[in-house]
Design goal:
Protein name: Aspartate/glutamate racemase family protein
Family: Belongs to the HyuE racemase family.
CATH topology of the largest domain: Rossmann fold
Oligomer: single chain
Strand content: 5-15%
Shape: globular
Number of strands: 8
Pfam families: Asp_Glu_race
Number of helices: 8
Order of helices and strands: EHEHEHEHEHEHEHEH
InterPro entries: Asp/Glu/hydantoin_racemase, Hydantoin_racemase-like, Iso_Racemase_Enz_sf
Length: 244
């Protein structure tokens, strides 16, 4: 089985870290292809970044389909380009936020999200509503750690995320934590050990859900709105991505 894991930003170090997190949970025989777009933002921290990230995801899904990927995982908590990617793919396409919400809801009656910049909290709230988890998600908490600061020891990222998680569990009366950034994937096990509750990383959850769906012989429905894009010629910068 081959799973394409797409980091929608253009930071190679983060792509490598996400790939490591995916391979750590992949079953024997599952090949993980961690990739990133050829264009876009170095981190995704707002609506404008998200637009370019969605286009980059579409670029990589097209390439992954041509290379024989069985499934795709979009490794950004905003799930940029998820629906477009499902139009392009016959196999499953998993967004890490949607995957994490589903897993958390099966492990706890209420969960909290701990994310990066406070400005992205509203974006996460929109996702919770879009996916129908408003009755399970009891709070979304920004730490004001920039995405690219997660690997900077000077940012004290782990301690700040741990403190925010502890506060969320008390304030929200929740019993699980969802990590609101794919760049936090490597912190998951350590946080779970200290907090004593399930801590869900969407990258790991996405890989396992993708494996399960592929193993069941299930793929994206090609009836209705996830049917392949209608053939047409795009103009300008989009011309190379015209649907066949």
């Amino acid at each position: 089985m081959k799973i394409q894991v797409i980091n929608p930003n253009t930071t190679a170090a983060m792509t490598a870290k996400i790939g490591e997190a995916a391979r750590a949970v992949a079953a024997p025989g599952t090949a993980i292809d961690a990739v990133q777009p050829s264009f876009g933002a170095p981190s995704i921290e707002g609506h404008h970044d998200d637009v370019w990230a969605a286009a980059g995801v579409a670029e990589q899904v097209r390439a992954g389909e041509a290379a024989g990927a069985d499934a795709h995982v979009i490794a950004c908590f905003g799930d940029p380009g998820l629906h477009a990617a499902r139009e392009l793919s016959r196999g499953p396409v998993i967004g890490v936020a949607e995957a994490a919400f589903h897993c958390a809801s099966m492990l706890a009656t209420g969960f909290s999200v701990v994310t990066t910049l406070t400005r992205t909290v509203v974006i996460a709230e929109h996702l919770v509503l879009h996916y129908g988890f408003e009755r399970r998600c009891r709070g979304i908490h920004g730490t004001d750690i920039a995405v690219l600061e997660l690997d900077d020891p000077a940012s004290d990222a782990y301690a700040r995320i741990l403190a925010s998680s502890r506060e969320a569990l008390i304030h929200d009366r929740s019993s699980a934590i969802v990590l609101g950034c794919a760049g936090m994937a490597d912190l998951c096990r350590r946080l779970q050990g200290e907090l004593g509750v399930p801590v869900i990383d969407g990258v790991a959850a996405g890989v396992k859900l993708a494996e399960g769906l592929v193993s069941l012989g299930l793929g994206t429905s090609k009836r209705g709105d996830y049917a392949s894009p209608l053939p047409k010629v795009y103009a300008g910068l989009a011309a190379p991505y015209s649907p066949a």
